[in-house]
Amino acid sequence: MALDAETQGFLGLKDVEIGPWTAARAAERDLVIPSAILPGVIDNIALLRTQTSLFVSALEEAAGEAPEAFEP
């Protein structure tokens, strides 16, 4: 599966890079993240990166397989 460069860069971030990356992305979009909530935002971005990585891995593993029917 081919990912765009931005997603690849996001998934390639190391834990120590998430804080500066988050601040830079916010600044690029003229967003101000109050310092009181910045640690929570960084934690959420780290979680999103982990979830995205797991999702991409699952898609790569399932490539070429027939999808399973959902059964509640």
Task: Give a concise summary.
The chain has 72 residues and is mainly α.
Largest sheet: none
Rg, Å, rounded: 16 Å
Instruction: Give the overall shape.
Output: elongated
Mean pLDDT, to the nearest integer, reads 91
Beta strand count: 0
Give the percentage of residues in beta strands.
under 5%
What do you see in this structure?
The structure is a single chain. With 72 residues, the protein is mostly helical. It contains three helices and no strands. The protein is elongated. It starts with a helix and ends in a 10-residue tail after the last helix. The model has no long low-confidence stretch (mean pLDDT 91).
Question: Which terms summarize this structure?
Answer:
72 residues, 3 helices
List the helices and strands and how they pair.
Layout: H1 5-11, H2 18-28, H3 38-62
